[in-house]
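[Backbone geometry]
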Amino acid sequence: MLEKPRPLWMGLFFVVYLMVEENIAVRTQRPARIMVVAGEASGDLHGGRLVKALKGLLPDLEICGMGGRSMAESGVDILVDISRLAVVGVVEVLGHGRDILEAFLILNRHLRNYPPDLLVLIDYPEFNFLLARKAKQLKIPVFYYISPQVWAWRSRRVKKIKRLVDRMAVILPFEKEFYALKGMEVDFVGHPLLDSVRTTMSKADFFEKNGLDPRAATVGILPGSRKKEAATLLPIFLTAARDLASQRKNIVFLLPLASTLTIHDLHNAGFDDKGLDVRVIANDTYDLMASCDLAVAASGTVTLELAILGVPMVVAYRVSPITYFLGRWLIEVEHIALVNLVAGKRVVPELVQKSLQPQVLHDEMVRILDNEEVRNVMRRNLFEVTKRLGLPGASERTARLILDFFTPN
């Protein structure tokens, strides 16, 4: 007896089934891929360590994104280099609008054409919020690593984060409670600097390597990793340093060259070593910091790096008058320096905007350098700040959260 022919719809269903199965098989065979986006030097540093941890757990993971030297060396396919994007402030950002727009368009196009399994965003909020919105439209899950400073200003942005971000890992101890009060659960993973801030030599060896007098007082000059920031702060730092050097016979100033800057950038920012013993040193950044009796530093991540190394400091902050005018109505915290925020009190001096004058900075430097007890109290407070940052292993903990969060194809 002949078999009755199957209905046409069954044949069509079988063809579609085979196509779907083949498509699933192809997708299953490709490695998992994520996009990681960082916008400045500190984000690049943390992103690089995170990528190393991810690769250690999942060696075949494909990672592309926006970053700098650290992420590139960790195996990220860099779609956009951040060297032109590291700016801060409303007016400052406008001057780099074309570069920022171009970066966004490149990443947005890549999200559409080669959708990753996950988008990982690192700080850099305004840019990353726009990218997160595009990812959500494309149904790409979003993981945010290192919270924007919504606890410092414009806390209403938490609503946007809840809408755009699927999961967040924070690195400052007070952030978990802050988000909980806003009705959002986040993971505190500890601060990644606890893993990366390490010296490779003793102070004596550092002095010998760089031809420094071991009897000299050493002052670190850290004007920030952004070109505009360095251009604003470096002339003030150098003027105060010259005043200090004119009163002391044996003092040397150490200036670490940030990975996002070149010596040409420093000269454009007003660097001039005439009449001043200042050494510009690339690499060996943490050995340089640890060798300082005192540092003058731009407000930012570097203040936590100095805290971990136990280096007394003066923190400086200045932006354009318009940016500051707008910002002061939005700032919701008492302190500017991260070390003071973590401590919950002022443990290092802050010179902000108009109070940041060469003479005022000079006087603070003298007060700290000439009083051993002041330096010792500051070191004890910085040790307490370091303890509050959590335990080492933040990058590994975050990598596991990321891999647990999505199922690679």
